[in-house]
């Protein structure tokens, strides 16, 4: 026992950072990690999120491993730049660059066997998390922070709320928390006249890693550099202009080196469906509930909404008064905290950091750095704390207890706060006792005991936060993860073997009946199954095909999911070249006209427990990959058509920008149906009122019925409900309150109080769902709220497909879920008949298909026999990366049918050769080459100057 005491006394708690610091951090990281994530193993869950983890991150990582293995086996082989497995076909660099191509951790996946991908996925997440703390320690060493203070700060940084949320949901979101401290450290080194090599390399890494986060990090590091220069280095006589010049040269060098991936990814983003949108979704302020949640968000893993996540250990509360009191000593932390905490108050800054789009606060990972550095400074300087500091700590403690516990719902009972607030009190108690000991008792410093208690409190705090988030007795977020060992079974279970029952000997595309597998209808796991599905779910989506889906008013349209299943509309589905359709056997109302059942398979559902049968359908009317169309229509006249008329036009003419057209005249087959309306009462009251330009909904259980005057017109037709000029104004708080209080459940004062408590501080959302029902199908379209950060856009009109049926349908009934007033211009119901004339029209296009199709890496070749001058139409998504040669001569391409590549072709027999090259890839390679040369020159110049300075 005596030996233990002697060793304890010899521990140098105040030493500077050494290798022992990194070892201590490593041990504590492992212990805290086990205490949090062991719960996943005990409850049988994996690190793969059942939404984006399964639908995007896991399959993309697995496919990336396949690409790496192929490259290692055949290093001289031409790399695949275009894949037919990415939706309608897509650029590999542009699609995968956002996720894995520039992620140095992702390359380690090649070290794992193919059957251990779940282990690889988990290991890479944990490795990233570990490196977050290592990067923090590297920066802490620059600030002369002591050993244990640095370790404590690193743990607060690693196990912050942002990473608790994102680590197992979006693994690559971890990387910017590694890069930020490294970038700050490298800037410090340059300002200290040390080697610029690390700065250039980290800038390059940042830009290739993910251009989305690179944009944020660039802003953050520029702010940091300005603050650090004017608060510290200017006083040391470091000249401003030469410093700017040097940093600019190094930044440009890093940028040039990264161009090989950065430029193609930037071009892909600018041409994507995400490149446009209303700034900050039109918001000037957040909900009142958001602001009232900030206190709780600071010390728990509970988000305030809008991707606002902080979640620090209780000790971080005392950083705020400490840094305020010593703002002149620590100006960079003070200014960073003021800016960070200030910017989270306004949607403007969320949108600014989110690429000038929606107010997503994913940038808040940056706040963790000054807070964690502040923790380290606090523990380094704890011996100098004064009576005033203790008073400020106590005041801050009381404020946090009141603000966080009161919260947005004015709810005193909040289990999530019990332990954090208790630990906050204990942390204050430890500081206070040490303050009394140092300033009044003045016996021994007890540094070791103080540091030991603090770091134990921090570790217990972090372990509790993680356990509360994932425990079934807490937030139970682990329930959103896939069970361990099931991911591969779920991937193969998407089709359950039905995908093996289609003919893959020639080019084909597939789709699903909408709702086939719930959310998993849109999984990118399709890239692993060789099914050529028309849909895709990538953050960067081809903007041209998204424009097509939007102008046809696809009810399933989302920014990252432009097609979905095209609402199973017949012409839309065929015009994309969909050869096969997979549908559950209970979804007969979702089968487009002309799709014939050819086979079936029994599958285990992946969206919910149970077994279902999958039927495989083949279309007799889908267009081929390339076909001649001798009839063209100019875009100007096309734009004047309604969405259904545009869809119909695509089956007759090729839509081009050129006004010199040879339009095929036709009589529209679309029938506008007459109807009468009625609204059944609910509990003796009308749930809605309908006028010629307004619908007022006062009860969500409404059913507005449109009874067709001539049901016979719906035979052998698709039936559509269309509403345009749509604008929703939700009921005010008072109107909603009056409706609620009229119900029996709100008769008591306590229930009315609860209503106020739960609703008074919340912004009234502007979302709603319009559901249309016919005798053979129920279909919905939604307007999401402005708080929906990835999917918000304003829907001015909705077009819903009630399905194809050979039988007559008597009515269409709709339900509007949002309470309020819906202004509109028109409500129309259409029937689109299908018969042999449609089949004949589509067969004509199929007969004009290119022949002798051959596919090679990044290449398609074919032969075309044109009976007359016309346009060769393809169903290849439009991008400038495709170069076309006709009979050996390069020809210019044009955008045809809004979303696809086409080009003019003269009468005669022609040989077509199409070659793909990622846009700006060659330019990026040249730029990167120049960057490497410039980088080498900078190294040489730096070492020559260093040698010269030594000789002097």
From TrEMBL:
Pfam families: YfhO. The keyword Membrane applies. Keywords: Membrane, Transmembrane, Transmembrane helix. InterPro entries: Uncharacterised_YfhO (IPR018580). The chain crosses the membrane at residues 21-42, 92-112, 119-139, 145-165, 172-191, 197-227, 247-270, 304-324, 331-351, 363-380, 392-410, 416-436, 448-470, 923-944. This is YfhO family protein. It comes from Listeria monocytogenes.
């Amino acid at each position: 026992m005596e030996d233990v005491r002697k060793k304890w006394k010899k521990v140098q708690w105040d030493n500077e950072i050494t290798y022992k610091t990194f070892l201590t951090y490593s041990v504590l990281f492992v212990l805290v990690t086990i205490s949090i994530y062991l719960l996943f193993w005990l409850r049988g869950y994996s690190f793969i999120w059942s939404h984006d983890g399964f639908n995007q991150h896991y399959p993309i990582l697995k496919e990336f491993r396949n690409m790496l293995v192929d490259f290692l086996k055949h290093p001289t082989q031409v790399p695949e730049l275009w894949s037919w497995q990415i939706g309608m076909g897509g650029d590999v660099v542009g699609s995968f660059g956002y996720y894995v191509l520039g992620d140095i951790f992702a390359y380690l996946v090649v070290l794992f066997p193919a059957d251990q991908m779940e282990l690889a996925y988990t290991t890479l997440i944990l490795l990233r998390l570990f490196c977050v703390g290592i990067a923090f320690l590297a920066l802490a060493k620059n600030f002369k922070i002591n050993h244990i203070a640095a370790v404590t700060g690193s743990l607060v940084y690693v196990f912050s709320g942002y990473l608790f949320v994102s680590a197992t949901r979006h693994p690559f979101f971890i990387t910017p928390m590694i890069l930020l401290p490294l970038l700050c450290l490298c800037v410090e080194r340059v300002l200290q006249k040390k080697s610029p090599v690390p700065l250039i390399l980290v800038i390059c890494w940042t830009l290739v890693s993910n251009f989305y986060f690179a944009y944020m990090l660039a802003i953050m590091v520029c702010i940091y550099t300005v603050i650090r220069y004017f608060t510290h280095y200017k006083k040391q006589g470091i000249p401003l202009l030469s410093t700017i010049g040097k940093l600019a040269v190094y930044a440009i060098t890093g940028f040039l080196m990264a161009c090989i991936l950065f430029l193609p990814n930037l071009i892909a983003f600018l041409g994507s469906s995400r490149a446009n949108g209303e700034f900050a979704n039109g918001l000037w302020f957040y909900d009142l509930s958001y602001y009232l949640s900030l206190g709780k968000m600071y010390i728990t893993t509970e988000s305030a909404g809008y991707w606002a996540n902080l979640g620090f250990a209780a000790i971080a509360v005392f950083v705020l008064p400490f840094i305020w009191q010593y703002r002149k000593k620590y100006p960079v932390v003070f200014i960073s905290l003021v800016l960070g905490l200030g910017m989270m108050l306004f949607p403007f800054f969320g949108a600014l950091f989110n690429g000038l789009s929606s107010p997503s606060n994913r940038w808040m990972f940056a706040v963790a750095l000054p807070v964690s550095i502040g923790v380290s400074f606090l523990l380094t300087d704890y011996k100098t704390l004064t009576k005033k500091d203790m008073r400020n700590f106590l005041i801050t403690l009381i404020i946090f207890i009141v603000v966080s516990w009161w919260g947005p719902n004015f709810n005193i009972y909040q289990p999530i706060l019990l332990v954090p607030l208790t630990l906050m009190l204990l942390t204050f108690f430890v500081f206070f006792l040490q303050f009394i000991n140092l300033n009044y008792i003045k016996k021994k410093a007890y540094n070791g005991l103080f540091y030991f208690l603090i770091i134990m409190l921090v570790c217990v705090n972090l372990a509790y936060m993680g356990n509360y988030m994932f425990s079934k007795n807490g937030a139970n977020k682990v329930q959103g993860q896939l069970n361990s060992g099931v991911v591969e079974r779920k991937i193969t279970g998407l089709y359950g073997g039905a995908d093996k029952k289609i003919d893959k000997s020639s080019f084909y595309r597939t789709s699903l009946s909408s709702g086939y597998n719930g959310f998993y209808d849109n999984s990118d796991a399709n890239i692993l199954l060789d099914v050529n599905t028309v849909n895709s779910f990538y953050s960067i989506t081809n903007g041209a095909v998204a424009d097509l889906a939007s102008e046809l008013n696809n009810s399933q349209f989302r920014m990252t999911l432009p097609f979905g299943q095209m609402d199973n509309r017949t012409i839309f589905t065929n015009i994309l070249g969909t050869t096969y359709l997979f549908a559950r056997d209970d979804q007969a109302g979702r089968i487009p006209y002309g799709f014939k059942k050819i086979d079936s398979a029994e599958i285990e559902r992946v969206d919910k427990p149970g077994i279902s049968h999958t039927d495989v359908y083949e279309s007799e009317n889908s267009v081929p990959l390339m076909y001649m169309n001798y009839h063209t229509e100019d875009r100007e006249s096309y734009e004047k058509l309604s969405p259904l008329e545009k869809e119909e036009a695509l089956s007759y003419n090729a839509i081009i920008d050129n006004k010199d057209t040879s339009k095929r005249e036709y009589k529209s087959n679309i029938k506008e149906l007459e109807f009468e309306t009625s609204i059944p009462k609910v509990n003796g009251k009308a749930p809605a009122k309908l006028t010629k330009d307004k619908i007022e909904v006062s009860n969500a259980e409404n059913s507005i019925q449109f009874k067709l005057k001539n049901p016979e017109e719906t035979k052998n037709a698709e039936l559509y409900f269309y509403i345009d000029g749509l604008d929703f104004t939700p009921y005010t708080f008072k109107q909603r309150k009056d409706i609620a209080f009229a119900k029996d459940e709100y008769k008591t004062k306590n229930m009315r109080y609860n209503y106020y408590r739960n609703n008074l501080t919340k912004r009234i959302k502007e979302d709603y769902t319009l559901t249309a029902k016919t005798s053979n199908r129920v279909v919905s379209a939604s307007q999401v709220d402005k708080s929906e950060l990835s999917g918000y856009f304003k829907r001015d009109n909705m077009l819903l497909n009630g399905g194809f049926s050979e039988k007559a349908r008597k009515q269409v009934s709709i339900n509007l879920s949002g309470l309020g007033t819906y202004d509109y211009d028109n409500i129309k119901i259409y029937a689109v008949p299908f018969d042999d004339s449609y089949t004949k029209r589509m067969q004509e296009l199929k007969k004009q298909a290119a022949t002798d199709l051959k596919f090679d890496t990044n290449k398609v070749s074919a032969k075309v026999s044109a009976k007359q001058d016309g346009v060769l139409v393809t169903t290849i998504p439009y991008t400038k990366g495709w170069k076309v040669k006709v009979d050996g001569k390069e020809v210019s391409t044009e955008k045809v049918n809004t979303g696809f590549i086409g080009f003019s072709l003269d009468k005669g027999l022609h040989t077509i050769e199409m070659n793909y090259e990622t846009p700006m890839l060659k330019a990026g390679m040249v730029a990167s080459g120049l960057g490497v040369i410039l980088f080498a020159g900078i190294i040489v110049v730096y070492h020559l100057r260093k040698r010269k300075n030594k000789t002097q």
